[in-house]
Design a protein that fits this description.
Helices cover 63% and strands 6% of the residues. It is mainly alpha-helical and 115 residues long. The radius of gyration is 21 Å and the shape is elongated.
Length: 115
């Protein structure tokens, strides 16, 4: 059974875009992406020839940082804001999971006590 060679294109972490493609999609100069790499904001994959390759996830991160920079934030503060936003989203997911587990456990106790 053969696998679909295009399947990796659906993976948001698969590095498929060159720097020029990524820059064009984001509406930025390649220097902006290089600066994010130098600052440690992005960690693009490197091809065998040493060329940067970007994933959809990395472009989303770069777009978020760019939005904060456009709002007047410095790069360092933009990095912190993005990390805090991600941490908050993860905490909200954990909270929702815990609430669902609690509600399920409560219902199981009610069902057991009623039966």
């Amino acid at each position: 059974m053969s696998t679909d060679p295009l399947r990796s294109l659906d993976d948001p972490d698969h590095p498929v875009l060159t720097m020029s493609q990524a820059a064009e999609l984001l509406g930025v100069q390649a220097a902006f992406l290089r600066s994010l790499d130098s600052a440690g904001v992005l960690h693009p994959h490197r091809s065998a020839g040493g060329h940067r390759r970007y994933s959809r996830h990395q472009l989303e991160l770069a777009a978020r940082v760019r939005g904060l920079l456009d709002d007047g934030h410095l790069l360092g503060s933009a990095q912190v804001i993005v990390q805090l936003q991600d941490d908050l989203a993860e905490a909200a997911t954990d909270r929702d999971t815990a609430r669902a587990e609690r509600d399920t456990a409560r219902q199981e106790l009610r069902d057991r006590d009623a039966g």
